[in-house]
Amino acid sequence: MKSTDKDENKDEKKQENKGEEVKKEPPTPLAEIKSNFVLIDRAVSTLEPRFTHRVLRTLTTLVKRLDETIIRNAIQEAYPKESTTKSTLISWLPTTSEDIEMQVDPTPTSAATAKFAAPVTSEPVPEVDIYLRLLIINQLLKSTEGVSKAKELSVETVKKMQALNRRSLDSIAAKVWFAVERAFELAGDISEARPMFLAAQRTAALRHDDDTQASLINRLLRSYLAYSLYDQADKLVSKTTFPVSAGNPQYARYHYYLGRIKTVQLNYSDAHTNLQQAIRRAPPATVAPGFYQAVHKLFVVVELLMGDIPDRSIFRHPVLEKPLKGYFEIVKAVRTGSLSQFQQTVLKHAALFQADKTHTLITRLRQNVIKTGIRRLSLSYSLISLKDICVKLHLDSEEDAEYIVGKSIRDGVIDGRLVHEKGWMACGGAGGVKRGYGADVAETFSRRIGYCLELHNQSVKAMRYPLNAHRKELADAEGAREREKELAKEIQEGDLDDEDLGGEF
Amino acid sequence: MAQNQLKTQYTDLKRSFEAKPADLKKCGSLLAKLKIGLIETGLLTPQGEHGVDDLVVARDILEIGAIWSIRTRDVPSFDRYFSQLQTFYTDYSSVLPPSKNEYPIRGLNLIRLLTQNRIADFHTTLESLPLPADAIADNQYISHPVNLEQWLMEGSYSKVWNARERAPVEEYKFFVDSLMGTIRNEIASCEEAAYESLPLKDALTLLFFNNQSELLIFAQQRGWQVDLSKSLITFATKGEEQVDIPKQKLISSALAYARELEQIV
Questions:
Q1: Which of A33, A392, A421, B187 has the CA that lies 20 to 30 A from A186?
Q2: Euclidean distance between CA atoms A261 and A254, whole angstroms
Q3: CATH for B1-99?
Q4: Pick from A32, A11, A207: which is nearest to A131 by CA?
Q5: Which of A 377-406 lie inside 8 A of B, CB atoms?
Q6: B129/A228 Cβ within 8 A
Q7: Model-level pTM?
Q8: Delimiting residues of CATH 1.10.10.10 domain(s) in chain A
Q9: What is the pLDDT of residues A411-425, one digit of tens each?
Q10: Mind listing the pLDDT tens digit for each residue in A386-398?
Q11: Complex ipTM above 0.90?
Q12: Which GO cellular component does the record give, naming just one (chain B) (predicted)?
């Protein structure tokens, strides 16, 4: 989501030199829309959602290259002259000066028109209508003035979709819901849309409309988390089942939201797995940098909370280096166990952490810093007075130091003893070396193996198989069986021969 | 008519609640009646449109109820009042004028979660507070439980002990007392691990006991050996614990690997 600003900048740039670009790039946006219409039509007539998926896959790249004129032309060509759908669709587009220009200079578009189709006489399928609406909403959302209009249109589109109630519409509907959320969010009132999402989610679940359901669950989670309603979000997760067939981007989001909820609930190891999944399923860093960064920010914090130190390579990644700078400093502070450095870093980057909603999580790290500090001391000294601990770790009083050390001994962070009369901590003992064998190793091993196995299973599940491919295999198997039979027959006959031979001897 | 009756009962309740000392018994019976009244007017869990004044009254009643529950030491009842108040605090926050009791009550709820050792719930509630993170430190009602939690987690028990006196509202002390019990057990378990022996005098200060007899009772409960002549507590060394090999677990995970491998090959 955070990448939108960047995207918009790119759009502007693109629009500036649109004039040349549109002509040069092999399929112009208009042509692409046109071919998408054909695909949608085929999808509807053959009841094959695959084609629709193909159309939607290009949506993001297509939207970036669109402008009002292109959409208008696409509408003009898709619908017969006196179509009411057409006029309503066009009425949603803002009338700008560009339109007049277009009428003055229609050369590139009309050329394209001539190439593609003769004037349409029949009304296209309603899916095309919804697809066009989706494009219009996305177009409207590009400018700030269009937001309220986009919101209106999105609400109307949703009503229309629900009235149409066509299964072939499902995957487009999922995308429409995303646009709806975007419109409401930009208008600043997602909470208004929540009842609508909830109702639609129930319907989608009843109809086994997996695409829409996945999309809607994510919408709802996002809106809950935006208002920090972790309780409700948690309940939603426990009451719904996320459709297994959902696409990777939806899964990535879902895992990210789950990770967020689990982190807040102090369930760090689960959060860790979820975030790992989210990272793995996320689109490449260069395509969706915003999501990639957001997930990694949380991931770093969760790793720290678990007592691990995140991999250094994360902070060298070109996409992550800059936005994660504050987090890198936190990691350094935690690693060295310096409470003052940690405090300073938190203060310095407070605004950043608050914007990322990780501030409260980072304040939880304080105890980890102390523990690391104590562990370092226990490794480097065999005897150290509580007063020195106090000074080195910047604790407030010796009394505190005693309790804190006592707690870390009990929690198994360090191996040592407190000698109260003399006021020191004695560290290390013969017993310390034994740990780390047996059960611990087995546990670590099983965790790593579990990770590998899950990776393997997930990738197997993510593979796609061509339809009807098994037919060929079946035919092969059939052939093999035939051959086997023949072989068996021959052997039998051979046996007989042998016997015969034997008989002769 | 129901409205009028509600109004008079409400002013009655307010009067008896604000009187010093408050008449808790009377408050209790009035609250029970008022709740029925609220249900009849549909204000207990408001849905849809209601007058702002009515909502404010309903909220006040529930707030008094929450504080009353603490004073009568009835935690489950506080829990119920608090969940009912949630509607007013979150859903109607844009309509209603902010209540001066809101943050004290939210803070009380946080402390309650802390004393019941529901740390996960504590953090969830904290995250969903409608406050920016830096305002938490400035809000004394909220910062109190937040600090307590932090000190508990890192082990600065003496700070918790000292903070007991600095409770922003009288009601906090009720929870802080029960918190002390938890802390003592925490400290005791730390001591068992960290010390071999401890003089009685020091144990007294470490565990925040006022006199030796209390300590002796406590030591007995935890099974410590107290040598009165040397005035020394010796903690039972747990000896070398026999580390069991978790056979069941190892077997099952080995089998699981085998099964997965079989699937892959």
A1: A33
A2: 11
A3: 1.25.40.990
A4: A32
A5: 395-397, 399-400, 402-406
A6: yes
A7: 0.73
A8: 374-432
A9: 777 777 787 777 788
A10: 888 888 887 777 8
A11: no
A12: proteasome complex
